Amino acid sequence: MADKIAHTAEGVPEDAMRRLAELKPGSPGSIFTSDLSVNEFLLVKEAGFRPLGLVLGSSIYHVGLQVARWGKSQELDVLSQAMYHARELAMSRMEAEADALGADGIVGVRLEVEFKEFGADVAEFIAIGTAVKDDGSGQHGEVTWRNNKNQPFTSDLSGQDFWTLIRAGYAPLGMVMGSCVYHIAHQRFGAALGNIGKNVELEQFTQALYDARELAMARMQAEAEALHAEGIVGVQLRNHSHTWGSHTTEFFALGTAVRPLRPDHQIQRPTMVLSLD
C-alpha cells in the first residue's frame, strides 16, 4: 500500500515544502526555477524583482449535481460555488508556496481546469506561476508589496505587461475572479419552428447570456473592492461548457487588481523597452 502523502495546514504536500526549502535564497546550491520566457524573465528583473522559484497549487475536485428546468434560464449556484471554491483552493496553495519562499508576489500566473478520466464530474484545478521578490535595489522606494490580506500579490499579466505596470507606477494586488454556471433555457418547439428562414434575435438566449456574464463580472469586481483596488487590468471573460452539454456553460471573469504605488501618483510613461532582437 502506498504511503499516504503528508500535507501542511494549507494543503501543500511536505515534498513540495522540502523542494521550496532548497529554493530559498542562501540555501546550499539553491537555483531559481521559472516558467517565464527569456524576455519575460529579463523584464521582470528590469522591473526590480528577482525570481525565486516556480510555485503551484492543485485541487482535484468533485463537482456536484444540480438539475435545471428544461425551459428556464437560471444560475446553477451549486455548480458556480464548486467551480469557484476549487480554483480558490488551488490559488491559496500556490500562495502558500510563495509565502514559504518569502516572496513578495507571483507573476505570470496560469489558472487551468482539466476534467479527468476519473469521471465526468471530477476536475483538476491548477494554479502555477513564478514567485518573485523585490531585489532590494531601492528603485521602488519604500513599498509594501503584499496586499491588505498580507498575502503575496498574484498577477496573470505577461512579463512585458508587468514591467510596464511597475514602470508606470502601479502595483498588482492580486488576481480577482468571478464564476457563474448558467443554464440557458431550451427554445420551445413552436418558437424554433417559427424562426426557420428568418433573421431574428433570440431574445431569450441573449438575455440569459447577458445575465450570466454580468454575474461573473460583478463577482470579480467585488473581489477587487475587497482588496481596495483602484481598478482591474487585463480582464478576460471566458466561457466553457465543460461536460455539462450545450445549454449549460460557465462564464469566468479574471483579471489583476491594481493600485498606485504612492498616494500622489501620476502616470509616468515608460522610457525603455528591453529587446533581445
Automatic annotation (TrEMBL):
Coiled coil: none annotated. Belongs to the UPF0145 family. This is Heavy metal-binding domain-containing protein. It holds the Pfam family YbjQ_1. SUPFAM superfamilies: YbjQ-like. InterPro entries: UPF0145_dom_sf (IPR035439), UPF0145_YbjQ-like (IPR002765). It comes from the Bacteria.
